[in-house]
């Protein structure tokens, strides 16, 4: 039944491999169960309910993506956009979290309209294949950087922005050991290398001091817990800001739209390209369905009571573990639901265990750099700006914008304007206006 439903044979995979891949994806992104509630609670939202809402939205959205596309993509409330929601919109602009959820709903409806009309699919098709490869590489560096940061191997520095961490710290050494272990297992083609490494480091952490009077892996106080009710956030959105201060609401909606759209597109291109799902022309079959799925997920997130749900770059962990179909996502979704009752156990998995997985996945994705054509500077420069811009700006959308603007300018300046789709110039123009808005805001 599973073979027929998910076309496992046609995709060269098995039930065991898909389940293993789904578990790997879940392990890589389980941190969202703790991090998303912590961020949104800063806006005054109830943290206990947010744990339940985060798991429910992740599970429902991931199942929806698998049902509509049969792709191994997992979705959850987006990192970065949740910080924008809490700290910029709610705390910075003084918008209530209920009104902010209303803006997330409007954003999702606009997304859905753009998806059903094929506009978002055309945007994906308009991005040159060279830049799609660069997006994959840039996301690879981004996810590796996040892993190095989470594991303490790189830390912030007021003098040099970033610097190396404290290698005398047991958690940092444990994380570095996890990176080496995962690399060795992958190089030796050991099945389930990433999930085996996560479990090994988690187990080792029970016996390694964290330098703060405890162990890297804390012992859970209980094995099971009942999930909190989602009632405090469910259907609590309102549209007061739209009715009473549309001028204030419009820039927020446009920012949500721009960041969500290109974060989703970037992740979709990066993960599916690595999974071998793009066709010979660099186009993604069923892209329209994928975009409808994440549009509906954005609407669902506002109804349940969280910031926008997006496709997760950690899906690449499952892809590297062999995931090729929606059964990978179904497994991830099932584990999110199970996590509602196993929260004490899930939350003790330390960053030292999940960080190595992100680093290794980043290396996998960066391998796409070998397909880039670097003998033409007009093509190389935009690709480089994307590859460097995504991790250094800590934003997929901003990195893509830099590359698209550079590509449009170089093609116009070198007499190759017709080699680029008109829609590519439109996208470059939109990002230019986005940058110009920031310049005007700085001046006035």
The figure for the number of domains is: 2
Taking Cα atoms only, what radius of gyration do you get, to the nearest Å?
21 Å
Spatial arrangement of strands, main beta sheet: 1-4
Query: Spans of 5+ residues with little confidence (pLDDT < 50)?
Result: none
Strand content: under 5%
Could you report the average pLDDT, rounded to the nearest whole number?
A: 81
Counting DSSP H or I runs of 4 or more residues, the number of helices is 20
Estimate the helix proportion, in percent.
55-70%
Q: Sketch the major β-sheet.
A: 2 strands, antiparallel
Helix and strand composition category: mainly alpha
Q: Using DSSP, what is the number of strands?
A: 4
- What sequence of helices (H) and strands (E) makes up the elements? HHHHEHHHHEEHHHHHEHHHHHHH
Q: How far from one another are the termini?
A: 62 Å
Shape annotation: globular
Essential attributes:
444 residues, two-stranded antiparallel sheet, two-stranded antiparallel ribbon, 20 helices, 4 strands, 66% helix, globular
């Amino acid at each position: 039944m599973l073979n027929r439903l998910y076309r496992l044979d046609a995709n060269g995979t098995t039930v065991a491999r898909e389940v293993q891949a789904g578990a790997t994806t879940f392990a890589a992104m389980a941190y969202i169960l703790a991090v998303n509630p912590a961020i949104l609670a800063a806006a005054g939202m109830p943290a206990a309910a947010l744990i339940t809402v985060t798991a429910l939205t992740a599970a429902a959205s991931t199942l929806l993506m698998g049902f509509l596309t049969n792709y191994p993509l997992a979705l959850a409330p987006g990192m970065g956009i949740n910080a924008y929601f809490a700290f910029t919109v709610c705390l910075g602009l003084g918008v209530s979290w209920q009104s902010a959820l209303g803006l997330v709903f409007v954003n999702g409806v606009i997304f859905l309209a753009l998806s059903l009309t094929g506009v978002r699919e055309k945007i994906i098709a308009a991005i040159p294949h060279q830049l799609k490869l660069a997006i994959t590489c840039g996301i690879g560096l981004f996810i590796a950087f996040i892993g190095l940061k989470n594991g303490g191997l790189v830390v912030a520095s007021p003098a040099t922005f970033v610097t190396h961490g404290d290698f005398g710290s047991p958690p940092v050494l444990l994380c570095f050991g996890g990176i080496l272990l995962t690399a060795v297992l992958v190089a030796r083609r050991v099945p389930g290398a990433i999930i085996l490494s996560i479990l090994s480091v988690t187990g080792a952490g029970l016996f390694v001091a964290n330098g703060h009077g405890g162990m890297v892996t804390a012992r859970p106080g209980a094995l099971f817990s009942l999930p909190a009710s989602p009632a405090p956030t469910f259907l609590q959105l309102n549209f007061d800001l739209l009715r009473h201060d549309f001028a204030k609401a419009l820039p927020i909606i446009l920012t949500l739209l721009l960041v969500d759209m290109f974060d989703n597109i970037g992740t979709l291109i990066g993960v599916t390209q690595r999974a071998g799902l793009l066709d010979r022309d660099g186009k993604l079959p069923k892209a329209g369905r994928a975009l409808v799925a994440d549009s509906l997920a954005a609407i669902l997130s506002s109804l349940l009571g969280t910031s926008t749900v997006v496709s997760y770059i950690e899906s690449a962990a499952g892809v590297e573990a062999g995931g090729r179909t929606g059964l990978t996502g179904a497994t991830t979704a099932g584990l999110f639901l199970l996590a509602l009752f196993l929260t004490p156990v899930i939350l003790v998995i330390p960053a030292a265990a999940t960080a190595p997985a992100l680093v290794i996945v980043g290396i996998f994705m960066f391998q796409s750099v070998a397909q880039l054509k670097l003998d033409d500077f007009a093509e190389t420069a935009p690709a480089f700006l994307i590859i460097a811009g995504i991790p250094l700006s800590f934003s997929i959308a901003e990195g893509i914008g830099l590359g698209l603007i550079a590509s449009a300018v170089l093609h116009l300046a070198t007499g190759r304007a017709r080699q680029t789709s008109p829609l590519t110039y439109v996208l470059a123009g939109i990002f230019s206006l986005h940058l110009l808005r920031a310049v005007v805001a700085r001046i006035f």
